[in-house]
Amino acid sequence: RNPGNHCNQLKVFKTENINSQFVIDEIRKTTSSFLLNTSNKIYKEIFLTKKKFVHIHPAILPDFRGADASLWFLLLRNKIGSTSFVMNEEIDKGQIINISDVKDIFYLSKSIFKKFDINNIYRIWFSFVDPLIRNLQFKKIISLNKDENYLLNIPKKTDEKNDKYYSFMDNQKKKEIFNKIFIKEDLIKLWLFYINF
Q1: SS3 sequence, 168-186?
Q2: Based on C-alpha coordinates, what's the Rg of the chain?
Q3: How far, CA to CA in Å, does 86 sit from each of 22, 82, 93, 135?
Q4: Measured between alpha carbons, how far is 141 from 77 in angstroms, rounded to an integer?
Q5: Which is nearest to 46 in space by CA: 86, 22, 19?
Q6: In 3D, which of 128, 141, 185 has the Cα closest to residue 34?
Q7: What is the rounded distance in angstroms from the CA atom of residue 175 to the CA atom of residue 25?
Q8: What Cα–Cα distance (Å) separates residue 126 from each residue in 132, 175, 188?
Q9: Sign of CA dihedral 178, 78, 90, 23
Q10: pLDDT tens digit string along 37-93?
Q11: Using CA of residue 33, residue 41, residue 86, residue 11, what is the dihedral sign?
Q12: CB burial of residue 32 (10 Å; 0-12, 13-18, 19+)
């Protein structure tokens, strides 16, 4: 879906620094109470605007916070899922809007990726698959047709006993997860995953 169909005005601008005074001023000018954050940058000053920022995380929160979350979740749970939430100043914490249906592991063809080294496969993952997971969550929250009154009254999460922060994967873990995904020579289930999400 085109996000422009679900908002009165869609404004796009580029900046080198998400915490610049220019960005703060632009955010303050908007009449919207909620904004969608699609970046992986660390935010500080934007919270001074008193706006609420919705973020989409490519794993289940609060269990899988931090970096490379889509890969950690797949490695440790054999599943794919995502969470939309209202950001606060802590990393990947805040009021949860929606947790996606969790899908079983999918496989990608080894033959497609055999010419790439581990670092290039990692880049491909975060250029295509990880954004797909996030996009499906975005589609889900758009389809929920939640208005700002709903977003202002999201129940606060209370159970954080499984809350864990993950850091960037080292090359050994990357090899482990990609060997787990690329186990079939000619089987590609990504499209089926996309259709059934």
Answers
A1: CCCHHHHHHHHHHHCCECC
A2: 18
A3: 23, 14, 8, 16
A4: 24
A5: 19
A6: 141
A7: 44
A8: 9, 15, 18
A9: positive
A10: 877 677 778 888 888 888 999 999 999 999 999 999 999 998 889 999 988 888 898
A11: positive
A12: middle
CA distances, 100 to each of 17, 73, 78, 130, 134 (Å): 31, 13, 15, 14, 10
Of 118-122, 154-158, 188-192, the range with the highest mean pLDDT is 118-122
| Residue 162 tokens, joined | 């499984």
Tokens 């934007």: give the residue: 46
- What would the two tokens of residue 108 be? 């990608």
Closest CA to 91 of 134, 51, 116, 61: 61
DSSP output for 110-132: HHHHTTS-HHHHHHHIIIIIHHH
| 7 DSSP assignment | S
- What tokens does 50 get? 């008193």
Residue 158's pLDDT is what? Answer: 43
Q: How is residue 103 written in tokens?
A: 């899908």
Long-range contacts, 129-133 (Cβ 8 Å, 24+)? 129/70, 129/190, 130/58, 130/70, 132/190, 132/194, 133/58, 133/70, 133/80, 133/81, 133/82
